[in-house]
UniProtKB/TrEMBL annotation:
Residues 198-776 form the Choline/carnitine acyltransferase domain. Residues 24-70 form the Carnitine O-palmitoyltransferase N-terminal domain. Keywords: Acyltransferase, Fatty acid metabolism, Lipid metabolism, Membrane, Mitochondrion, Transferase, Transmembrane, Transmembrane helix, Transport. This is carnitine O-palmitoyltransferase. It catalyses: (R)-carnitine + hexadecanoyl-CoA = O-hexadecanoyl-(R)-carnitine + CoA. It comes from Electrophorus voltai. InterPro entries: Carn_acyl_trans (IPR000542), CAT-like_dom_sf (IPR023213), Cho/carn_acyl_trans (IPR039551), Cho/carn_acyl_trans_2 (IPR042231), CPT_N (IPR032476). GO terms for molecular function: carnitine O-palmitoyltransferase activity.
Amino acid sequence: MGRCYVHSCCFRTKYVPKLDQLGMAEAHQAVAFQFTITREGIDLQLSHEALRQVYLSGLRSWKKRVVRLKNNVITGVYPASPSSWLFVVIAILATMYTRSDPSMGLIAKIQEHLPASSDSLSVQCQTVVSAVLFSTLLWLSLIFTMKLCLKQLLSYHHWMFEQHGNLSNTTKVWVMLVRIFSGRQPQLYSYQGSLPNLPVPTIKDTIKRYLESVRPLMSDSEFKRMTTLAKEFEDSLGSRLQWYLKLKALWASNYVSDWWEEYIYLRGRGPIMVNSNYYGMDFLYVTPTPIQAARAGNTLHAILMYRRKLNKEEIKPSRIPGTFIPLCAAQCERIFNTTRIPGDETDSVVHWQDSEYVAVYHRGRYFRLWLYQAGRMLSPREIEHQIQRILDDPSPPAPGEEKLAALTAGDRIPWAQARKEFFSSGVNKRSLDCIEKAAFFVSLDEEEQGMMGDDPEASLDRYAKSLLHGKCYDRWFDKSFSVVLYKNGKTGLNAEHSWADAPIVSHMWEYVLATDSFRLGYNEEGHCKGDVNPSLPCPQRLTWDISVECQERVRRSLAVACALADDIDFHVFPFRDFGKGNIKKIRMSPDAFIQAALQLAYYRERGIFCLTYEASMTRLFREGRTETVRSCTSESCAFIKALEHGKPADVCRRLFRTASEKHQLLYRLAMTGAGIDRHLFCLYVVSQYLGVESPFLKKVLSEPWRLSTSQTPFQQAELFDFVNHPDFIICGGGFGPVSVLFVFQVADDGYGVSYAIVGEKLMCFHISSKHSCPQTVS
């Protein structure tokens, strides 16, 4: 008789793909075993190759667990080492051998309280066991003491306010002690347990600094009114709110970061495209290969190499440039396998432990591309071969598939509702899960981008807009980051902002670009080096069943996203007249110099000064993210007015230096937890929880930031040799013209300015504004 029942067990995929979408060879590899029930019994057929793949994949997973456990132990005992336990045990036993009691009777006490089952042991064995237990307790106590000492040492920040090369004796002693207690060869997360908590500034200091920051922006009557509101707040409601904030600071690792992530990012109901996401560019002057698939092969492989180093914690801890002071690495935990999930009231950030594939978009189709086989990472040449298969695939998109990602580009509530209605079960849920659980997202673009043609400046502007929003449906804006690979071999990325700040992604991107060009390289034809494995299974097409109603939701989201994208005016330009080297020759901070230049440019265009946002970091503290530097100060305004009114050069130089020193002071205060805006923001959140209104806080948080600025840090200079390879220059990245309020709102009459200081002779600027505002032109 014929077969009455067939069962297949699959590995890797959660469901059996249709045979018309996978070749017979791939389908065969996807089936580990088959059995059929007949009258004669059960006929069992095993695929040894498939079982081998399952075994090797599981072996890789267990190896990762062992490495993770080992790293947790090493990080947990840092600044000591696991081997130091053996040293302590031997030292205690050796001391006891000399008939001395280093425990002052504690070993004997431990021996008395050993469980009854130990009576079978000899007295000597009981003594050794007790000594080992005492040694372990002593070792753990020493570790705790060292961590506590290091935490107290890292809480000292006075060194930041001392002149370079003129350190006080206190700071010199502090430097020596930090080096002693810092241990050797720290891993990525070694310092996490020793970083201090972010301190809560006093109400009095925050209000004083706030009033000082708004004085040049207000008339006398406005400032008097604000001073009155501030005084009333300080004398009444402020103390009550401050008490709750201090209570949270005692309980939480960081009193700002969780509220900042939730209320500033995740509760925003407008589009995250342009308003929240940001981008990073490729090399400015060089394209390592013009072959799209080859560039994808090296880029994706380099990203996997970075992830492997990240998982093994082999990446060196980030530090303040030029020092040995560590920075918090908590944000690194969510670089990969992370997605923002939409909700009706608030979104959520979901992170998975591991993912062996990426989701790829090309010409309206979605693919799952496995990056590991038999427990090993695919080589660049193998990834290139797989990407080329996707590029050569002639199949058309399914109905509604092409512009599906527009849901992630539009308003968040419609996307959350559509996700519940159309993607909560069946084939749509499986395909959406595949995208959201991918290591990251890859977009194979059919356009050519980069600095090229007769008008290189205009081409850079188009390149920036393409990375920021693309066609509004060819990037999955909810993924932690999306890699974009263009037809001419150019690349770039788009990153979601809620899970981490730009320096984290920038650190990864620097490594990827350097590894792509200087370590992996290409052959003479422009292809990745190595051989192709022809037995690799084809990338899998994701299947969808998009209803007409769902397609209408996609169309609406796309209309919202396109209107926003079309309104963005972008200009990117490399400034080569002078750079950091020239600025340092006049003993001035390059960042303060650029901020003064931006203030001057805005004043010349508008004739007024504006509230200016400059992002600083607070990663000196555990789980620290950012703080605001209010760059428009009374000192900078005085300099600009003197310059514009034709005051003598020596007067302008003196005022310029005063403004620069003031900016550096504000930046250092922000870095050391004495900023203004995060404290006021958290006080406002507490007031909302308590259901009380504060006219002062409401006024503060309603002030628009018409100039939003940020420096893209260049962190790994050792990866690039600008002397021998001067053309391999990274152009940085940029963002849209946003106003950082309680929820994201676009500042229609404002600018977004990102700048990167590259080497000694180049500065790159990324300027965004809105076409709809007649007062702004990027």
